[in-house]
Amino acid sequence: MATIGFGDFIPKTTFSKIFFGIWFIISLILMGIYLINTKEVVTELLTEKYKKELKKIEKKRKILDEKIMNNHIRLNSEASVKRKLTDYVYEWYYHSMLVPSGLKIKKVPNRVSTYIQTEVGDADALNKRLSRAGFTNKSIEDIQKSSEERTKKMNIRRMNFRMLFATCLNIVFV
């Protein structure tokens, strides 16, 4: 049964009841057609919006990937500078134990003003001291190469982790 207005008026005659019954059925059909068309329009608008958003996200991700690939060594943040300083202090301490003479202060280009480094005069004497310290059959060049390789591997791992983390953040928050 259909009501008129707020429900306080109802059809009382049979003709008005039949008329409002037919009117109700026709209005249901028209409302259904309207909702189906509205659904299609809304979904199309939303998919276009999300396609644009996905394109923006993809551009940002590509820019981030390029920046990470270009600057994959160490970032020059405060934490990495502190880490470099501690590395230099340990390096100085290690070399001062092996080569006690000839300490100098030198300039470093990567935002660290000074650090203490040894100047090695005789490579054979240093290699003898290295072998006494437990580095058998390794020269200072071999040790330096192996440490550089380890640093590169660590930087690649850090870069991969940063890329994964940035992608996850991009997916979650955007």
From TrEMBL:
<keyword id="KW-0472">Membrane</keyword>
<dbReference type="InterPro" id="IPR013099">
    <property type="entry name" value="K_chnl_dom"/>
</dbReference>
<protein>
    <recommendedName>
        <fullName>Potassium channel domain-containing protein</fullName>
    </recommendedName>
</protein>
<keyword id="KW-1133">Transmembrane helix</keyword>
<dbReference type="Pfam" id="PF07885">
    <property type="entry name" value="Ion_trans_2"/>
</dbReference>
<feature type="domain" description="Potassium channel">
    <location>
        <begin position="1"/>
        <end position="42"/>
    </location>
</feature>
<keyword id="KW-0812">Transmembrane</keyword>
<feature type="transmembrane region" description="Helical">
    <location>
        <begin position="18"/>
        <end position="36"/>
    </location>
</feature>
